[in-house]
Structures are given as structure tokens and as C-alpha cells.
From TrEMBL:
Residues 11-84 form the RRM domain. The gene is sqd. GO terms for cellular component: chromatin; nucleoplasm. One of its GO terms (biological process) is regulation of gene expression. The lineage of its organism: Eukaryota, Sar, Alveolata, Dinophyceae, Suessiales. It comes from Symbiodinium necroappetens. InterPro entries: Nucleotide-bd_a/b_plait_sf, RBD_domain_sf, RRM_dom. Transmembrane segments: none annotated. SMART domains: RRM. Keywords: Nucleus, RNA-binding. GO terms for molecular function: RNA binding. Gene3D superfamilies: 3.30.70.330. This is Sqd protein.
Length: 101
């Protein structure tokens, strides 16, 4: 297994379109088919309500390729979800788009 820097996000995927009621355990259960899940971080509002997206961190980078190959099979809580590699650029791209206006 390759060593990664602390800020390396190569073993993390973004999961969007989650139901507000979806739990970390359900997300981990789904993605454990592709490799050992290190952690699931569902982003929440200050009141604890899910924002509908999460980041799933795998123990091994190789799991990411398996997840991405299975794009059409990611259904959690009877809802299709979007899965993308966590490049850490979505927020930056949005900010740059705002500045360009």
C-alpha cells in the first residue's frame, strides 16, 4: 500500500444526492463492496440535518477505481446517487466562476 500525504484526497470519493435520512452506516455498507471503508463524512447543517452529500474515504486507493467503474450501480436508500473522485476543486471552480461575473 502506498503512503499518502495527509492532504492527499486520492482515496476519497464525493457522494451526492443522498436522502436526508441516509446514515453513515448505510453509506459505508454500500461502499464496502468496493473495498475497506476508512470513514464516511456526511456533511450536515448546524442543526444536524444532512446536506445530502458525503465524502467516503477508503483504506486503499485501488478501491476508488472499482467505485468509479460501477457508476451505474450506486443506489443507496432506494435513490440513485452521484459518485465522483474527490479532487477538491469543485468549491474553487465555483468561486472562480463567481469572480468572473
Amino acid at each position: 500500500m502506498k503512503k499518502r500525504k495527509e492532504d492527499d484526497k486520492s482515496n476519497i470519493v464525493f457522494v451526492g444526492g443522498l436522502r436526508k435520512s441516509t446514515t453513515e452506516d448505510k453509506v459505508a455498507g454500500h461502499f464496502s463492496k468496493f473495498g475497506q471503508v476508512d470513514s464516511v463524512d456526511i456533511k450536515r447543517l448546524p442543526d444536524g440535518t444532512s446536506r445530502g452529500f458525503a465524502f467516503v474515504k477508503f483504506v486503499e486507493v485501488e478501491s476508488i477505481a472499482k467505485v468509479l467503474e460501477a457508476q451505474s450501480s450506486h443506489m443507496i436508500d432506494n435513490k440513485w446517487v452521484a459518485v465522483k473522485p474527490h479532487g477538491g476543486t469543485a468549491f474553487t471552480e465555483d468561486k472562480n466562476r463567481e469572480r468572473a461575473k
